[in-house]
Write a structure and sequence with these properties.
Largest sheet: 6 strands, mixed
Number of helices: 10
Order of helices and strands: EEHEEHEEHEEHHEHEHHHH
CATH architecture of the largest domain: Alpha-Beta Complex
Radius of gyration: 19 Å
Shape: globular
Distance between the termini: 7 Å
CATH topology of the largest domain: 2-enoyl-CoA Hydratase, Chain A, domain 1
Strand order of the largest sheet: 1-2-3-5-7-10
Number of strands: 10
Structural class: alpha/beta
CATH superfamily of the largest domain: 2-enoyl-CoA Hydratase, Chain A, domain 1
CATH class of the largest domain: Alpha Beta
Strand content: 15-25%
Length: 277
């Protein structure tokens, strides 16, 4: 897989796990247009690469996962170059919303490794992942109102990760939440001592990479398809998917392994050729 090494985004694949690291520790890993664009390119490649089974997002250094948008580095212009000025800035801000959508539509499990500050858009980026493994030093917040802004697009991952009134409180007060409180609220999957963070992420990604890839994709897609739906709309859709899934080779192997009291032998996805997207 192409590596953006040497830039503000590092991409490292170890077996079935792709780790994307925002590499701007001197700016608390704040996002620029280049970082957002790099994340989107790497996710597009990961989606089409069968050798990637899990994606981890993190930030370089010990201080921050991501401090949000770099307010000094994201000038009002369209990073695509099609327009400029006010309209270009408006269109460019939509890149973050598209990044959230691409994370949810990836078809493969995603894990945020949060070792420090996850603020504003960085908070949203962590919450847009399926799971959040946090160091006990992690801090989370949506402080946009304190600088005369509002976490508009971050609202969606927040509402998908915690009770609505709790999300509103954090947005209205700009209050920073520590790892233990984040765990109580429920938007963190697991909190571990700082020195055990990498081991906890490795343990989780090993489990996620061992699941049947086809059914994992169908099931994960179904979760995001119904998460905002009413029960009357969701249940017929899920009912149909159960019938489809029950006819797959992965379901047949899983049931046979259960009956025969052995581990299932999932079909291993082939590695993509060198240089493949």
């Amino acid at each position: 897989m192409t590596d953006d090494r040497g830039s503000d985004l590092l991409a490292d694949q170890d077996g079935a796990v792709l780790t994307l690291t925002i590499n701007r520790p001197e700016r608390r890993n704040a996002m620029t247009w280049e970082v957002v664009g790099g994340l989107r390119r790497q996710l597009a490649r990961a989606k089409s690469d069968p050798s990637v089974r899990v994606v981890v997002l993190t930030g370089a250094g010990d201080l921050a996962f991501c401090a949000g948008a770099d307010l000094t580095g994201m000038v009002p212009e369209d990073p695509g170059g099609a327009t400029d000025g006010y309209l270009g800035h408006h269109l460019a801000r939509g890149w973050l919303a598209e990044l959230f959508e691409e994370l949810w539509g990836l078809g493969k499990p995603t894990v945020a490794r949060v070792q420090g500050w996850a603020m504003a858009g960085g908070f949203g980026l962590a919450l847009a992942c399926d799971m959040v493994i946090a160091s006990d030093r992690a801090r989370f917040g949506a402080p946009e109102l304190s600088v005369g802004l509002w976490p508009y697009m971050v609202t969606v991952p927040m509402l998908r990760s915690m009770p609505p009134k709790k999300a509103l409180e954090l947005m209205l007060t700009s209050r920073v939440v520590g790892a233990e409180e984040a765990d109580r609220i429920g938007f963190v999957t697991r909190v571990v001592p700082h020195g055990e963070l990498d081991a906890a992420v490795a343990e989780l990604t090993t489990v996620l990479a061992s699941t049947p890839p086809g059914v994992t994709r169908m099931g994960r897609d179904s979760f995001y398809a119904v998460v905002d739906s009413a029960a009357a709309e969701a249940l017929p859709y899920l009912h149909a998917l159960l019938t489809v899934t029950s006819q797959t080779a992965e379901a047949a192997e899983g049931i046979a392994a259960f009956v025969e009291k052995r581990p299932p032998a999932w079909r291993q996805a082939p590695s993509a050729p060198d240089g493949a997207a």
